[in-house]
TrEMBL record:
Family matches, as Pfam families: Glyco_hydro_2, Glyco_hydro_2_C, Glyco_hydro_2_N
The name this protein goes by in its record: Beta-glucuronidase
Family as reported in the entry's similarity comment: Belongs to the glycosyl hydrolase 2 family.
Subunit structure, as described in the record: Homotetramer.
EC number: 3.2.1.31
Organism in which the protein naturally occurs: Timema tahoe
Domain Glycoside hydrolase family 2 catalytic: 324-640
Keyword Transmembrane: no
InterPro entries documented for this protein: Beta-gal/glucu_dom_sf, Galactose-bd-like_sf, GH, Glyco_hydro_2, Glyco_hydro_2_cat, Glyco_hydro_2_CS, Glyco_hydro_2_N, Ig-like_fold
Residue span(s) of domain Glycoside hydrolase family 2 immunoglobulin-like beta-sandwich: 217-319
Length: 652
């Protein structure tokens, strides 16, 4: 589809410039594909603050960087050096490295893609001085084809310009302030501020790889599953492409469903259904003795003469979600979420992908007895979700739209694009049980209603001619996300009052953040049960939707104690949790109250602020992943809830 084209998805209209242009299957090696990592130590340079465009003006992308320092990839650049000007830098920075491409790749007549797991925030990528691609927004992958830009059997150079500036039209938002008081600031001084409560880490955060595809290759695979009685159903659709976009209609697909080393089913066709009798379903931890069960789906692209052109495999968990009649059910069984909000955050590497940290976190999640987490406040790495899928941990998959305050059509188009990329990336993960559109947006604003709005059920969905939209905005956020995937409920997280929130009516399930005895009525622990009960009851009575507590908690400095308990101590944090548990135990008798998620899993970095002592300390664990007293208190509670689930579902 060209840039001027229009793609109909369901009953929403995607403008050509916003439509998904590339499927971005996770890179994997197979009989037909190779993957070459470009992770390692790169060259790195800041642009001079008074000459932010110097790198473009002098074409740094076409020459070897000068005055560079070493920078690990993946990582955030902020905490690597000992220099505050690097940590706090806002604007264009440059990455560069050389790499070798084998001559064989050219001889094999294959396509080559350069893929980035994520860069925060804006990225412009060059190979051998030629523009490859641009991407706007962190936390999600992007790629560009480099087949015709490479020197085969020789050295090549990749250069990446990265900018972490946040504005009212980025997601998340920030403010660019041009100061004009020369008594306070130097002439031309610019401030970039943001309101969200975590550090705006920047850089190449996730793996960088070159990967190959054959001339005729599998471009995308979409999976949806269902459960009817003891039969599991896998609905699949495979799209294929040709390097150069010359698709051969004669090519077809063969699909194998494999359990262990045994082929269970085989099907011919690039779309179809697989029916598995007595299927082993995907279950969350504690709801089944074998949680996280997945089958292997192996897809072959086959030529007319029977040759295998491309092979790609993915793991598929069979499960069914139901939220239409109140509560949240998985495989027809009610789900109660117990877990955390988290962050991708750790010492030195910031938000850079860290495999030891990922495995450590999942060990702690298992130790504490949790069954879920929310990817607050942005999509986490693909490797994190893959492990959740494998272990049976449920995930509320959240976009980077935190603290939105300005709602307009430009931002909406950007937000829709983010949801496209998020759904496209994670649509096949059984662990993803909800799409979260945003966290703590200022939804008391009148503009928030039209921004999120769900089309009324009596709207004629047969054609867009009956939709009274502006020329730019073709459907609002909830409806648009539903058109991308209608197999999961849509949620968002709010900290507004139920009587002033203009967006909550449009989502399926509502997450509520409330910090009783911390940000309100500080220290008054006895008020917590009353306030939490009233809060949840009011939200449900007003909207008649399922509700979960998405954040509650208190900061605690590790090792700080008082008797009696006082704010900022470990003792106070535990007491605050215990009072919440009393309210939760009453509320969870109601079908509409579906979960409790504490804030936060571990302490994390924030911007410098007089209300924060080197970060946010609401974690159950320290930033180094060691337990506070609150971790033991949470473990005791979650173990009780887990035991209830084991007994309840022992026959599954």
């Amino acid at each position: 589809m060209g840039h001027g084209g229009i793609l109909l998805v369901g009953f929403c209209v995607l403008l050509g410039s916003a439509a998904i242009s590339s499927a971005l299957l996770y890179p994997q090696e197979s009989e037909t594909r190779e993957v070459k990592t470009l992770d390692g130590i790169w060259k790195f340079r800041l642009s001079p603050p008074n000459k932010p465009d110097q790198g473009f003006d002098e074409e740094w992308y076409g020459n070897e960087l000068k005055e560079w320092i070493n920078m690990p990839v993946p990582s955030s650049y902020n905490d690597i050096t000992v220099h505050a000007n690097v940590r706090d830098y806002v604007g264009w920075v440059w990455y560069q490295r050389d790499f070798f491409v084998p001559k064989r790749w050219q001889q094999d007549n294959i396509g080559v893609y350069l893929r980035f797991g994520s860069i925060h925030y804006t990225a412009i990528v060059y190979v051998n001085g030629h523009l490859v691609t641009e991407h706007y927004g962190g936390h999600l992958p992007f790629q560009g084809e480099v087949t015709n830009l490479l020197n085969y059997g020789a050295s090549n150079r990749v250069s990446v310009a990265v900018n972490n500036t946040l504005t009212t039209h980025t997601i998340p938002q920030g403010s660019v302030i041009h100061t004009n008081d020369t008594n306070m600031y130097p002439e031309g001084y610019i401030l970039n501020t943001y309101t969200f409560d975590f550090f705006n880490y920047a850089g190449i955060h996730r793996p960088v790889v070159l990967y190959t595809v054959p001339q005729n290759y599998i471009d995308d695979i979409t999976i949806q599953t269902d459960v009817e009685g003891e039969t599991g159903i896998i609905k699949y659709e495979v799209s294929h492409n040709t390097v150069g976009n010359d698709v051969k209609e004669s090519d077809h697909c063969k699909v194998l469903l494999i359990s262990g080393s045994k082929v269970l089913l085989e099907n011919i066709g690039c779309s179809g259904e697989l029916h598995i009798t007595s299927a082993k379903l995907w279950w969350p931890v504690y709801m089944h003795v074998s949680p996280g069960h997945r089958y292997k789906l192996q897809v072959f692209l086959v030529s007319q003469d029977g040759n295998y052109l491309d092979i790609y495999s993915l793991h598929v968990g069979i499960r069914k979600l139901d939220w239409k009649n109140g509560g949240l059910k998985l495989n027809h069984k009610a789900v109660y979420l117990r877990g955390f909000g988290k962050h991708e955050d750790s010492n030195i590497r910031g938000k850079g992908l860290d495999f030891p940290l990922i495995v450590r976190d999942y060990n702690l999640i298992e130790w504490v007895g949790a069954n879920s987490f929310r990817t607050s406040h942005y999509p986490y790495a693909e490797e994190i979700l893959e492990m959740a899928d494998m272990l049976g941990i449920m995930v509320i998959d959240e976009s980077p739209a935190v603290n939105l305050d300005v709602f307009d059509e430009v931002l909406l188009e950007r937000h829709k694009r983010v949801m496209e990329e998020l759904v496209q990336r994670d649509k096949n993960k059984a662990c993803v049980i909800m799409w979260s559109l945003s966290n703590e947006a200022r939804t008391l604003r009148q503009q928030a209603g039209p921004y999120y709005r769900l089309l009324p059920s009596n709207t004629d969905r047969r054609g867009v001619q009956n939709f009274h939209f502006t020329p730019v905005v073709k459907c609002e956020l909830v409806n648009y996300t539903r058109s991308l995937d209608d197999s999961r409920p849509i949620t968002f997280v709010t900290n507004q009052g139920y009587n002033v929130d203009n967006a909550a009516e449009h989502v399926d399930i509502i997450g509520v953040n409330r910090y009783s005895a911390w940000y309100s009525d500080t220290g008054l622990l006895d008020l917590i049960p009353r306030q939490v009960m009233s809060l949840i009851t009011e939200w449900h009575d007003h909207f008649n939707k399922s509700i979960y507590i998405s954040e509650y908690g208190a900061d605690a400095i590790s090792g700080l104690h008082t008797l009696p308990a006082f704010t900022w101590t470990e003792d106070f944090q535990v007491d605050l949790m215990t009072r919440h548990f009393k309210a939760f135990d009453i509320l969870r008798k109601e079908d509409y109250f579906i979960g409790e998620m504490i804030w936060n899993f571990a302490d994390f970095a924030t911007r410098q602020d007089y209300t924060r002592v080197i970060g946010n300390h609401k974690g159950m664990f320290t930033r180094e992943r060691q337990p506070k007293e609150s971790a033991y208190a949470l473990r005791a509670r979650f173990e009780l809830l887990a035991d209830e689930e084991r007994k309840k579902f022992s026959k599954l």
